[in-house]
Design a protein that fits this description.
468 residues; alpha/beta; Rossmann fold; eight-stranded mixed β-sheet; six-stranded mixed β-sheet; 15 helices; elongated
Amino acid sequence: MRLHEHQKTVARSPARFKIFRGGRRVGKTVYKIEAMTYKSVSKLIRLAREFPNRSVIFIAPTQKQARTIVWEALKARLHGIAEFNESRLEVSLPTESGGKATIYVGGWENRENYRGMSNVIHIEFDEVDTMKDFFIGWEEIFKPMLMETGGSAGFGGTPKKENPNLRRLEKEAETKPDWDCFHFTSWDNPGFSREELTKAKEEMDAETYKQEIMAEYVDNAGSLFKYTAILDVFSNAITKTNEKYLIIDISDDGHDKTKFSFWQGLEEYRRETFAHMTTESLIAQTREFQTQDQIPMSNTLVDANYGSGVAMASSSLLEGIVGYKGSYAPIRTDISPVMLPNVHYTKDAPLVSDYKNLRSQCIFTLSDLVNRHLIASKVTSKNKEAIVEELALYQDASTGDGKRMATTKEDIVALLGHSPDDSDTWIMRMYFVVREKLIPGQSEEAKIRAEKVSRLFDKAFDTSNSAR
């Protein structure tokens, strides 16, 4: 196979990890086949040590796509040189050093099958933006293989706004010297019909053309959180206050885990996860954490939507803890712009709120702080990946009744396949941010609410629009 000049640019790069973002038919697959073939047989590859027998992996979003995308092309490219196992999608070929190389072709849904493989010197990922939980799989399964061998990897695809893994890879590559990024449009393939590309520009809607042909990132217009701002949370340097908070998200159905989230100001500095805890053990653990980190009861908040959370919120052993329910009415913190003091009959302007419920108010508050880079977190690994994935799903779901509403928890659960416990702790942390907006003496209504915020919200504030 002959590479065109743009493909050669990628091939010539000495980077260990390469990101190839390209439009349709730009030649990503052809390049990957050549890269895998070279890595398989060449004795010039830089590795941690010599490997007489090598393994190379190609991962597509699904096994079926892997067969469609690359298998037949591999057979044509290596015909007469390699042996092919059709049922296992494996290619065996000799190396220049007299050993044997095996190319494994598979789907992301079977990624666990690759865990612990040895002698893996190169991995190619195709259509990365359609791989769910990509960074967890990359960090836990595939990256350790390459650490052992000193091997390399390629990440390619056309960008998708729903699951922007390529965008995140490119952002993180900015600070890594052994990474390189490449962006080519469909127009960069000299073999692609100009007539067809011109027709595509005329017939496709602007957003689709930008994404599929120009390989540019398209933001989801309704997203509450800027994706790059979510990623920045884990590297943000913010001015912290001395005030500490403990947020507790309770496991509700036996499958989710209880999360203890520790905050100093607006920086989450620690997170602890437990499974199968009784109410008694939850209370004891809460008291222990409060003592260890010197967190007052009034700055401790528990999700009081379910059994253990409700019990904790009303326990005499946790007197003063804040019980949180997202379905409660929002806290009214904004003065009405049309009912000013000394103009109408009220002494003070009444407080108003344009949110559907407390949960939506907290989510919009969180999105504002995240997008303005005022939130920071030190959590890593799975917790980080879960938070990024969960927050990226939140949309402005307002219905036109004048009250702002975020995507319901039920809809987030449906999209994820599990409860968004990691980001829930961040959302609940915003309760204290919203509460700080209350100014004592601002109005009679503010005075009344200020007296209640240290305990459970009065049930009179509950709304019929439950978001939990």
